[in-house]
Design goal:
3 domains; globular; GMP Synthetase, Chain A, domain 3; alpha+beta; Luciferase, domain 3; single chain; 3-stranded mixed β-sheet; about 25% strand; Rossmann fold
């Protein structure tokens, strides 16, 4: 609703303690019909009296030139865009120092990508988390406070988050235990339009069931493990693609990675990794598996690794598993 969107913008304004109303410039490269850009670019800019620098789509050279020429101070985007800029050739010809703050959303932000982009620009890049049903922001790492590696941060103002047992969702779990994230706050939707059954399954007494697995540490910082629907069941064990993706991302030759579950005659399902290497880098399946030997358990290690020139992405640049799952399904059935 309009009230949900207005509440979320207000929450974001409170999240920026050093915001200069009327003076900021926001670079928008994501489509405004997507809720992340609608809130973090369009609505936020209007509420903050900020100038919007809008590009029709993300093009690396065009974006770098816009940063150099137009001097934006805020640059919300998805991890693949920050990765793309980190890997751009001849970066020394562009001045990126005007950027002060960036919020990354839509997908996990690899620590190496965050560190490299912050070093490159001098900005503070923080990871947030949300869903369309939350307008979308629910949590975010602090702009000026503690950022814990791998964390999606703290709940934004006015937001409650509880962690529920996956098998018995009416029960909450203890600090540090994994479970499904439930969210309550003024930004949570009223329901799905003309879909009462789906609404009843997703909303419970004002709480939004996210379908995401995560945990909270003793200081209240939240960590996302994976989507319940992306869970891979290997020999009866729960294997989380994000755990594997984070380990593979640690290799210096890797640019992007997506992990899905594929049928396995012995284990039921097994992880398969699709990897895009950085330009000019080489890596074999054996070398990557050797690298992962002390980072993943035997059951978590990919049964197959496929190197590709490009990986499928959504309209806003998030890595997408759907196309890869469909490919593997067709291959298996064919």
């Amino acid at each position: 609703s309009h009230a949900n969107l207005a509440a979320n913008v207000s929450q974001m304004l409170h999240w920026f303690p050093d915001l200069r109303p009327g003076e900021e410039k926001i670079l928008g490269v994501l489509p405004l019909f997507h809720v992340f850009a609608m809130t973090s670019v369009m609505n936020f800019a209007v509420a903050a009296g900020a100038e919007m620098i809008l590009l029709p789509r993300y093009d690396r050279d065009q974006a770098l030139k816009a940063i150099h020429d137009k001097r934006p101070t805020l640059f919300p985007a998805v991890p693949t865009i920050y990765t793309s800029i980190n890997e751009a050739p001849k970066l020394d010809k562009y001045d990126l120092s005007s950027i002060s703050f960036c919020i990354s959303g839509g997908a996990p932000l690899p620590l190496d990508v965050k560190t490299r982009f912050e070093k490159l620009t001098g900005c503070r890049l923080v990871e947030g988390y949300g869903l369309s049903e939350c307008s979308p922001v629910a949590t975010c790492n602090a702009i000026n406070g503690i950022n814990k590696a791998g964390s999606i941060g703290l709940p934004v103002p006015g937001t409650d988050i509880s962690i529920h047992d996956i098998e018995n969702p009416e029960q909450t779990v203890s600090v540090g235990e994994r479970g499904e994230l439930w969210i309550r706050g003024p930004q949570v939707m009223s329901g799905y339009w003309q879909q009462p059954e789906e609404t009843d399954q997703t909303l419970r007494d004002g709480w939004l069931r996210t379908g995401d697995v995560g945990y909270m540490d003793e200081e209240g910082h939240l960590f996302l493990v994976d989507r319940i629907k992306d869970l891979i069941l290997c020999s009866g064990y729960n294997v989380y693609p994000r755990t594997i993706e984070e380990a593979i991302n640690l290799h210096s030759a890797v640019s992007e990675v997506t992990v899905i579950g594929i049928p396995d005659d012995y284990r039921g399902e097994a992880p398969k990794a699709f990897v895009r290497l950085q330009d000019g880098m080489t890596l074999t399946e054996t070398e990557l598996l050797d690298f992962l030997a002390d980072k993943l358990s035997v059951i978590e290690r990919p049964s197959m690794i496929e190197f590709r020139a490009e990986l499928p992405k959504t309209m806003i640049g998030k890595l997408s598993k759907k196309e890869l799952v469909e490919e593997e399904t067709q291959r298996t059935q064919g």
